[in-house]
Each structure stands twice: as C-alpha cells, then as structure tokens.
Specification:
132 residues; globular; 20% strand
Length: 132
C-alpha cells in the first residue's frame, strides 16, 4: 500500500495528487472519523479486465504480474491507456477501477483475512475486523 501511495505521489498529474491527498487524510483518521455506515466492503474477487465505454476492455493479465508472490501493477501501461480515454469522468473512473482491481488482486494474494473497503473516492485494504 505504501508503495502504491508513493507511486501516486510521484505522478505529476492532478488526479494522482488529489487521490493521494484523499487517501492519506482518510488513513490518518480511519476509522474514528468515519461513520460505520459510510464504508462498504467490496466482497468479490479481482476482475480480469476493466471495461471502458466505447473502447476495447483493458485486460489486466498482461499488466498485473506477480513479484515475490504479490501482484505488481504496470501503472505506466495503465496511464498510457487512460490517456486514450475521452472525458475526464471516464478517465477518473478508469483509474479508480485500476486501483480497485490492483487492491483486490493484492488482497487475494495476501490471504482471505484481507478485505477491501471503499468510501467515496478512498479505497483501503485492511485485515478484516471480526466483531466479537
């Protein structure tokens, strides 16, 4: 996760800067500042592709490779593909879908006790909290 945040912080575009800031703020106050009802558990497996409206799907297999047993996303390839997409909203959705897909792949590699939560624009992979 830290590597992903550092990678985003190194990207000069506004999307990465905004999302990095949101992610860091969210992590800083998690979970005390968020009502329990705002976050949702993404309880499904990692996707094989990202759907892009009006274009060929972005197949993930060539761009999510295992490195020491953990999935590593080729963010440069995702960025290249994102630049081909028309419309800011569609680009934002594509990038968020890539982040979500990578975190779902990472969660599967780390084990079933890891779960992905989403709250607005923030995504967080965490050990599952078991209520007693």
């Amino acid at each position: 996760m830290l590597e992903h945040v550092q990678t985003l912080a190194q990207r000069p575009d506004k999307i990465a800067i905004r999302r990095t800031h949101i992610m860091l703020e969210w992590l800083r106050f998690w979970p005390s500042s968020l009502p329990e009802t705002t976050s949702r558990l993404l309880d499904y497996g990692p996707p094989e592709y990202i759907r892009i409206v009006g274009q060929e799907d972005f197949q993930l297999a060539p761009y999510v490779q295992l490195d020491d047993g953990l999935p590593r996303m080729d963010w440069a390839a995702a960025l290249d593909r994102m630049e081909e997409i028309e419309g800011t909203a569609e680009r934002d959705r594509f990038w968020t879908d890539c982040e979500r897909a990578w975190l779902l792949h990472l969660g599967r590699a780390l084990g079933s006790e890891y779960k992905l939560y989403e709250d607005g624009e923030a995504l967080m992979l965490s050990l599952a909290v078991v209520a007693e």
